[in-house]
Amino acid sequence: MAKAWQHPFLNVFRHFKVGEWKRSTKEGDVTPVTDKTLKCTVYRIRGSVSAGNYIQLPQTSTQSLGLTGRYLYVLFRPLPSKHFVIHLDVATEDSQVIRVSFSSLFRELKSTATWLQFPFICEAGTSRKDLAGVAPSGARWTCLQLDLQDVLLVYLNRRYGHLKSVRLCANLLVKSLYTSDLCFEPAVTVAEARRAKLPVTPVPREMAFPVPKGDSWHEHYVHIRFPSVGSRASSEPARKSRSPPEAVFRGRVRELVPPPVAFSNPFLDGVSPAVQMFGPTAARPVPRPLPEVSLFCEHSEVPSMNGPRDRSQEPSARAEVTDKHTAGNGVHTAAPESAVVPVALEDVAPRQPPGRKQSRPEMTLGETVFEQRSFLPDPILKLKGVIGFGGHSTKWALWTKDGAAVVYPCHAVIVVLHVDTREQRFFLGHTDKVSALALDGSGSLLASAQARPPSMLRLWDFQTGGCLSLLRSPVHALCSLSFSSNGVLLCGVGKDSHGRTVVLAWGTEQVGRGGEAVLLAKTHTGVDIQAFKVAFFDETRMASCGQGGIRLWRLRGGELRSCPVDLGEHRVLELTDLAFGQAQDSHTLYVCGRSGHILEIDHRRRAVRRVRRLLPTQTPGGHSSQKQPFGAGGWVPCCVGGAVPMLWADAAHPLGPGISISSLSVSQTTCAVGSDDGYVRLWPLDFSSVLLEAEHEGPVSWVCVSPDGLRVLSATLSGHLGFLDVPSREYNTLARSHTAPVLALATEGSRGQLATVSQDDTVRVWDLATLQQLYDLRSPEETPRAIAFHPTRPVLFCGFASGAVCSFSLEAAGVLVRHRRHQGAVTGLAASPDGSFLFSSCSQGTLAQYHCSTTRCRVLRVTANMVCRDAHPTPNALVVSGDSRLLAFVGPSKYVVTIVSTASLEELLRVDVSALELASSRLDSAVAICFGPVPPGHLLVSTSSHTVVVLDAASGRVVRELSGVHSVACPSLALSRDARFLLTATDRVIRVWDYPAKASPGCQVYIGHSEPVRAVAFAPGQRQLLSVADAIFLWDVLGAPGRSPSGSAGDSPGAPPTCEAGPGARQPEDTEAGTGGLPRQQVPVPSQASPLQLGARAGPLKGADGAFSTSDEEGPSQESHNPEGLHQASSLPMLVKEASGAGDGAQGAPGGTWGFSMHPHSCGWATARSTTKAQARPSARPDCYRHFTARYKASSLVKSASVPSARVERLLLKAVVGYNGNGRANVVWKPDTGFFAYTCGCLVVVEDLHSGAQRHWLGHPEEISTLALSHNAQILASASGCSSTASRCQIRIWDVPGGSCRHLLSYHDTAVQALAFSPDDALLVTLGDYGDRTLALWSVATCELLSSVRLPEPAHGVAFNPRDARELTCVGQGAITSWLLQQRGADVTLQVHREPIPEEVGAGELTSLCYGAAPLLYCGSNAGRVCVWDTRAGRCFLAWEADDGEIGVLLCSGARLVSGSNTRRLRLWAVGAVPELRRKGLALCSWSTN
Asked: How many angstroms separate the CA atoms of 105 and 200, rounded?
């Protein structure tokens, strides 16, 4: 409700006394004139430049109108043959200022987080491109009614606060402005409303337009209501017709009409608004699209159409939408591509037939003519990580105030990177590369400028990430920004349109308080400025340096004045950077130059105090390979910490060219210098000696010392960002980057890796979990153009411009094989998902086939004239189907798509793309292709006519068509494995389509790249997607993935391998359980380790045809298995006893040692092993509750089961309620990644602790006994017992990021007691229970059995030494057993030592163990005592009574120890003094806690 003085309405011109110009202002040609139509005084605003002729209310931008009325009424008339602009600054409830603009200059709706631009189209046209233009000669007076509340809610999902300011720019006539909370009907007078008793609010008399007697209001005037009634954010759906009653609207009512929508209350729900859209005939709830809205004049109706459609439904018109609506994190735009077609809205009855010409041009707004659906959640993508640094330049990397994070630009995105956790957050909103950054002294205000003219300046709230102010800089391009320490002054340096240097100063004191930045001063200067900084001790003083001079600046009386510093003989130097001395009493200004000089300037006296120069040292051989430091007055050699020595010289000595210094930064005690020789050097302020230095791969372009002076941030021209930690003398890399646009990408599932190829002629491999670079492949003689991963082996294929195709081993970091079968540059590479074949194409039309299932791939076939020679350069020109049977490519011409067999290259299908659109006047060509999931087997083709055509891969029939996907051809597209989301990319925009919706799929639009997007792809787990252009963006998919079609690509080896369900069980696909069935709105907290990936799914058996049966007689193989066929291992281990022990008795002797090794053996091993097992006598169950006993089962597995086909509904497991308390160590949790898993029966349940959503990993035929998670949270091991159908236990190795079973292991006979990973995650140890009594050691990489041994008595627990991967310890009866792993070639030997338990401990059996601070080992006993062992000395030196029952759990972290027992108690112990007791060397001491 508006304030009382603003009710029922307010005449804004009268209230602010427009005409007196005391509370308002005018600029340019603004004249009061008498209008003949209205018969009153109006204001005429005209001029050739709209921005120079305007009326503004209030007088200054720091003031505010404070008008709270919901509706703004603008009574105006556009001047004929002219453009006009109306700017409104609207404040939200949270004081965010948003500019809303209407203009006939705009051609399309454009939207960012702080600016909405709506096109006002005043003349008819036949196409969308021609609609925008000047007003016609017959333009009439218009009542523009703006619902400010709905404008913000519909387009930005923000709450309206008040109207801050209005600017009416040329060219138009304006009568006045009015605000009110009432929705007036301008065509109805008060008398007419009373006489007809109409349920409307008539317009007040002073707002009314005069209407000649007997005429209709609509014949003389235009009423535009925006947004339309149907699109308002009310809780009641708009079910009435948009046509007013005949008695009310006896003419045409023009509205700004987006598609009618109705919202739930988003502010009560706390989530994105649930939206309903109603079509012309029925009210049908669908998700909300963001409409494009434009004012225009249309002569004819445009019939309704569907965007994507079946081939049988041909539209009569097409629409194009290119709006970019920023919401949420600043990059999402939920704009349907074909959401709105502008048509005239007829409100007279009867309705004009379609196609009939109107009598005169009218101004109106676009009207929806078909139903458009979006999809939830909205937004469905969230930017998670960015790989890249720099863009416009590799400068402007800043420390935060606390020194915990670094702020730097990555092209159009500003990244805040926490240096310890490596978490990223983003400032999004720039549409071009960021050219300058500045952070104020308090760390609360961030300023950024973008490069493309005219330069836009943004001011951000650094803590929240919100944009506080957006203003256009008066200069053409800004290249430098600097804040005063208190943040009230911002200075910038740039170039105007004539190339002259301009210095500007803004006052920023009111930013964040509802005000804007105010331009305080602007001055032109003829001197070159390379660096400009505001003094920290006085915000009115500044300094600059550049070619040939240093100038000191001062802001006084609204003017910027400067004076030069007399440099004497150094005035010809090219100076690059400067910094003020940080000491409070210091008057020193440090300046560096390209010649290696560092000048110390006394800025109070404007005099040079001292000059130094960095010079290379000439060795006796004449080479400058060594450098030494030089102090004042003489040569002083110095080399600190092994650093490369260097040489400082007095500037008076002409010793030749110096080392170019690009940047410097000063703390209170040190000065950091970055130079073109790639070194960052840290000096004391007297420059007496070098303290530290770090060498980089390229020239250093920027250095910045942290506020505490303990870290030095550095950036290089090669896109490297890192910091030197002064106390530890260690260098840490923060970011690496391509230095040119990325051309293509490839992903690898099992290791979570990404490979990219760039125009900088490098191929780089990245870790998707940490976003860090793993490999950098480059050759001075080759230019890479295409890449592909081998699906199952650590091999990367790369194609070069020379026509060569190379295979690189990522493990050996070398070239495996090189083929040269192409005469032209390689244009495409694709590997079959099963890993059998590799295909390459070149610019000369040649297609090559390779056999790549072995280490060295070999050429099978080379066929000429197969692939298009002049095809569009796109990474999607050569693709393989998910079942590895089909290969598709564009060729032999760009108008044809060909499908061949991957095995024989036999042509199966050829589709002429140019013949698909018969009505088109030009030939259509294929741009990119993409296979969908195998059933139903579709091929998606992106064409040059901006269309995506879906073809049947078997028959070539057009299944459906998505028209107007982009405004230009789409060079890259990708379809998710579950066929739910379609990605398309072109220019700088990414669109996500709801692919299953055939009638009218909605899309969401995302921006953020500053250059055209070259490629998009889903990450292996389908929970994330990647886009590459100027940088690499990693997006989280917030929507839950749907089910993959049976046998689809999601179950193929192209993704992370899935495993079979085991004998007698088919694995059903799991689903996610969420609140109300809706997907979660937030993703798990990011971390350095692999993110939580929910969605693992066990695939169907190979060759399954919809039904299968199992038999009780069938069982798994006894050896190691792979997920595909559970094949027997080719090389099996053999047990060999050492001479140190004879039989079990020797092995069991306390204090004795024995060893064994593993040798390959091709036959007889299984028989020998089974004989050994049979001879062993079964052990009685020990008195230890740690041993697992499976629950009694009253039922048995069925002998046969059938699974329906993909098109038949079936039961899917949704959620599991419960936990298997019978298991042992069957809960794992990684706090820093959020991964949480536990067991329930034979299921592994992975649960998101944020949302409660579950994923279920199936496969175990029996109850799971224990779990183990690798230290990097990439691998999970689970074990289950034997069964009637399986003679041995199953151990499954799960891939955590992909959620699939990588391997199935079998070794133990009864049950697995414990699992443990080595500290480096290279080894897995499995311990059998009391009935098995075996210990097995496995390789995690190959899942091969390295060693195994039979234990003399049952062991109760096992653990690796966290500080030595070669050492592990078991606890059991009477002793602890230590194992030392030794490997010689292929032989693996374990040296074992047993240490008996001292009698003083009073424990017969040790039941649990954990390692503490080195070299401590804590063990718990069945008697409730805890003993501490010195692993170096091999002795127990401390024991105490910790509980009344058996201790089954011990966990140590730092100085705290947690114990858990069968008495149902957990106890926390302080053990910080234990290492001191060990150092004192005391004899074993024991005490009781009672």
From this structure: 34
| Residues in contact with 1358: Cβ distance below 8 Å, sequence separation at least 6, in sequence order | 1313, 1314, 1316, 1325, 1327, 1335, 1368, 1369, 1370, 1371
- The two tokens of residue 925 are 């060509």
CA atoms within 13 A on the CB side of 315: 22
Residue 1106 zone, left/alpha/beta (φ > 0; ψ -120 to 50; rest): left
What are the start-end ranges of the E strands in 558-646? Answer: 559-564, 575-580, 588-593, 597-602, 607-615, 630-631, 634-635
Q: What is the mean pLDDT of the chain?
A: 75
Closest CA to 886 of 901, 874, 868: 901
Q: Is 1376 helix (H, G, I), strand (E, B) or coil?
A: strand
Cis peptide before 996 (omega within 30 of 0): no
Q: Residue 696: pLDDT above 70?
A: yes
3-state secondary structure 176-216: EEEEECCCEECCCCHHHHHHHCCCCEECCHHHCCCCCCCCC
Q: Which residues contact 681 (CB under 8 A, 6 or more apart)?
A: 646, 672, 673, 675, 690, 692, 693
Q: Rounded to whole angstroms, how far apart are CA atoms 1422 and 1373? A: 10
Q: How far is CA 293 from CA 109, 343, 358, 715, in A?
A: 7, 11, 21, 45
Cβ contact 1026:1008 at 8 Å: no
Q: Which helix (H) or strand (E) holds 1175?
A: helix 1165-1175
Contacts of residue 921, Cβ cutoff 8 Å, sequence gap at least 6: none
- Please provide residue 267's backbone torsions phi and psi, each rounded to the nearest 5 degrees: -85, -20
> How is residue 407 written in tokens?
């702020």
Rounded-to-integer distance, Cα 1006 and Cα 426, Å: 14
Instruction: With a cut of 90, say whether residue 386 has pLDDT above it.
Output: yes
pLDDT per position as a tens digit, 218-265: 889 999 998 875 444 333 333 333 333 332 323 333 333 333 333 333
Closest CA to 1419 of 1436, 1432, 1433: 1436
Helix, strand, coil share of the chain (percent; to 5): 5, 40, 55
Please give the structure tokens belonging to residue 352.
Answer: 């004009």
Q: Which of 347, 4, 340 is nearest to 185 (CA)?
A: 347
Phi, psi for 151 (deg, rounded to 5): -60, -45
DSSP-H helix ranges across 1176-1258: none
The mean pLDDT value for 1004-1033 works out to 89
At residue 154, the 3 state secondary structure works out as helix
3-state SS track over 1468-1486: EEECCCHHHHHHHCCCCEE
pTM: 0.54
Overall size of the chain counted in residues:
1490
Per-residue DSSP letter, 1191: P
Encode pLDDT of 811-864 as tens digits. 888 888 999 989 889 999 999 998 899 999 999 999 999 998 887 888 999 999
Pair 940, 975: CB distance under 8 Å = yes
Q: Which residue carries 């006939």 as its tokens?
A: 104
Radius of gyration of the chain (CA): 37
- Reduced to 3 states, what is the DSSP secondary structure of residue 1146? helix
> At 1329, is the secondary structure helix, strand, or coil?
coil
**Residue among 669, 661, 675, 665 at smallest CA distance from 688:** 669
First to last CA, the chain: 71
Please answer whether residues 1156 and 1187 qualify as being in contact, where contact means their C-beta atoms are separated by less than 8 angstroms. no
* Interval 14-37: pLDDT, tens: 998 998 998 899 999 999 999 989
In sequence order, the 6+-apart residues with CB closer than 8 A to the CB of 672 are: 664, 665, 666, 680, 681, 682, 683, 703, 704, 705, 712, 714
